[in-house]
Amino acid sequence: MAIRTIVVGVDLGESGRRAMQLAIPTAQATRATLWLVHASEVGLEHSWPDLPLAARSAAQALRERFKGRFENSLRELESERQRCEALGLNCQSSCEEGRPWETILRTAVSVNADLIAVGDPVGAIGLPERLLGSTAERVVRQAPCSVLVSCGRLREDYAGARIAVGVDFSDHGIEAVRWARDVAEAIDGEVALFHVVPHPITETIMPKEWPSVLEGLASTARSRLDQLIASEGLKPSTTMQVLDGPVGKMLCNAAADVHADLLFVGCRGQGRLRGMMVGSSSQYCLRYSPVPVLAVRP
Q: Does residue 195 share a domain with residue 140?
């Protein structure tokens, strides 16, 4: 795992502060360059040439208001950049007009980012937000690289942290294990692996044959976890558990039960509507994880 460039979504509020709280120690540990990205309101660059004469003065006043906010944002962003440089980090910043997720993703592609850090995915209350998702969710679905989301409880210092990893044995899940291994080595932390066997129907309606089927699946999963620990160079003492139930919910519960400080999950980047219909474990974790989530792409 090589992290050379980290793009950070900075909204100059609480969400951005939480993103910075995770991005700064990550950059310090990896000597990565930080790119602080802020999206200003849409409308600053619009001249509205076709407006009636009577409305142009109002449009000009609105444009001046946008301009004032943009200039304030530039000053605050520059202050954040200087704070990072004072900590010995190489840091760049950009403030652009546009939607936050589009600005973050565009920057990540242009600077060939290895990691994106974004704030807590809150505020999805109305139907459009529920259908389209928060900024963090949209970034995770479309990002060209792994995304660190500042969910839940944050620590001041992640030295010795415990990392819970959701393992489904896919390429994405195995890459999440590799990230956890490398991060744990860097911070002298611990790794706990969790494989979840999803229920075939619901939690309350089960085929009567399910317990015997589950035991067979769990036995196979435990054997594969043992092999994964050996093949990926994890400590032989690495904790592992096989659970059954809704995948996202069980991973969040497991992270809380073992007092994990971080949760790593593989992310396929499936569409929002498909995620609503068939369920997405990474999407659930972004909403309900008790600790920050790293959505890993291979």
A: no
